[in-house]
Design a protein that fits this description.
The complex is a heterodimer of chains A (446) and B (277).
Chain A: H1 3-16, H2 18-56, E1 61-65, E2 67-71, E3 77-83, H3 88-96, E4 100-115, E5 120-128, E6 141-143, E7 155-157, E8 185-189, E9 203-204, E10 208-211, E11 223-227, H4 228-239, H5 244-252, E12 259-264, H6 270-279, E13 285-286, H7 287-330, H8 332-340, H9 345-381, H10 383-389, H11 409-435, H12 438-443
Chain B: E1 7-20, E2 23-36, E3 40-44, H1 51-59, E4 66-71, E5 74-75, H2 81-91, E6 92-95, H3 107-117, H4 122-135, H5 151-163, E7 169-173, H6 181-197, E8 201-206, E9 217-222, E10 225-231, H7 234-247, H8 258-276
Helix pairs in contact in B: 3-4, 3-5, 4-5, 5-6
The chains are: A alpha+beta (446), B alpha/beta (277).
Chain lengths: 446, 277
Amino acid sequence: MRISDLVKMGLKNLSRRKARTALTVIGVIIGTISIVVMISIGLGMNQSFNKFVMELGSLTMVTIEQNTWVQDDDDEYSGKVVVQKLDDNLVETLKQVKHVKAVSPIWQAQAELQTSGKAENNVQIIAVDFDYLDDLGLADVSYGTMPTADEKNKIIIGGRVMEQFYKPSNWNYTPIEVDPAKEKIFMTFQNWEYSTEKEMKKQLLKDFCVLEATASYTNYDWSIIVDVSYYKELYTKWSKNLKLTDQKSAMKKLKEYSSIQVIVDNVKNVKDVQKKIDELGVKSTSLSSTLEPMKETSNMLQMVLGGVGAVAMIVSAISIANTMIMSIYERTKEIGVMKVLGCVITDIKKLFLFEAGSIGAIGGIIGVLISYFLSYLINRFGGPVFAGLMSGSGMLGGEDATYSLIPFWLPVLAVAFAFFVGVFSGYYPARRATKISAIEAMKSEG
Amino acid sequence: MEQNGEKVIEVKNVKKVYRMGRERILAVDDVSFEIYKGEFCCLLGTSGSGKSTLLNLMAGIEKLSTGQIIIKGKNIHKMSEKGLAKFRQRYLGFVFQSYNLINSMTALENVELPLVFKKVRPRSREKMAREMLTSVGLGKRMRHRPKEMSGGQQQRVGIARAFVAKPEIVFADEPTGNLDTRTTKEVMNIIKDIAKKNNQTIVMVTHDRSLAQYADKIIHILDGKIQEVEVVDREEICEVNAAEAAQQPEVKAVTVEEAISKLNQEQENIKEQVEIL
């Protein structure tokens, strides 16, 4: 038989029993939808995770905080805070730990910004080693340029700092946005811990850049970032203005860090490194360990959907096989006649495989189309559902979050898979059809 | 004259044994005969005599127990299934008692079917099928489905389907078994005419002695064995047929041989009476 005749005959046979074909196709549609939606949700979540991680910082980073919330065995926060001693000794010890690429101590302090227009803003000042600036996962620069490793005296201003200025005279604290290009900005450390007699000197920020505001509101959004060496310089200079007794205690603060960032050589080793740090008696956190439960939830969701998809696909495969076997029973006589009239058995086989494959492909195509629609609905209205499932992680919120993502290859793959399922489940019936004895077939009714 | 012609079918010592539980039934018992090109051969016998089995064996639809069947110089029971299918496409046509048309297809599509398997292009095969249907007098019924036609019309579609690919041999298994006497005559004449025009060989199975008049060679079969092979002078039959057709196109038994003419007459008379009733 010519292929065109085969196709024509197959489609005609399918349309002869519309209701049955339609019901079988619906089975395939359901299977395809579950699989496509499952994969799309998986991909969508991965994308969200990646976006989230990119904004928060690197996955290879382990953070040790001076003030750490105590967790109980179930990883629940008890509300107690431990103060850990983070000094140069610890930094040196950490550097010896296996798989540790670099250790970057960080100071944090409160600073006050003032503009030439008398607007003020209280910010956090974070001192990091600019050599590891890349590992912080900072947003892009919106004003100025990102400092290179040599520009240790440059200051980075977080994305939401400039828009949160206020005038002290205004009781409402209406935020004022400051244009970095137009106004001069001064900085000083906050000195509420110490009593001062004279007016503290303010440092004019000359060389600085401003970051873009991130959508996920990271810590850096409300901070200014400086290099460790420059911080030391600024802090020492500032503390000279304090009373002599206060100077000492202020300088003591430089001996201890507010946090330490440990950069691990590979994501896979983060767990090991955290374990080693734990053995030193120091609590640490990492993005990987925070993401773990969320990834587990997402994996479980995908597995549930995948299970549903697999079951639906198996059921539809069985239903295709059933439809084809019924069809063979009904067409036994026809098959016998075809054989006697000189139809090659491989053509009979091909005809049945084509019919089964068509059911699969038609179901696959319709399923993919419906999946696109469902994907749209999930992204539009699915937010609360996913927020509930991902409890404890506000990060997946946001207006433009993607929960379901269908890349171009997914529909192609899905239709191909559905077609394959059809052909696969049609194989046994098709073989059966070829084995029908012509003489018996012609005697049968139909 | 035929004896000198080309041997188209050779049946050599053919046996067919069926197993029915523990019992073994010898349906065809050591049968040998030959059929020549252009011959109209009739396998005549009562039901259960093994004549249909013999035809199925000759067509390769059923498997042999022992013996050989050689068609066009080829032992068809040694062919692969695919080879046999191709052989059928090229050389064989079939007419069945129960027509065996495909109900979901129109008359035209049914006739086209063997050509579809033969990979003939759609346009030329439609033309061939149309011509064939017209020649069997169904020029106006091409788009009808089998269920919308009478038995005689359906069988004419069946004949058109058997002859459309111009096979050298056409097997007919009780082609008129479901038809009344009048339609039987029409159908038989159509088969005979077409076969004669193209010098095709016909092998027909029947239990009806009156149909034997159309044959050049009558093989009487009883209990799986050949009882008698009659070779009829073809020209004589043709003359008788022509004369008979001219005089009385209606039902009337034609005497081919004195020995069976009386029997035939009685049979026909009985049938007529049944019809009238």
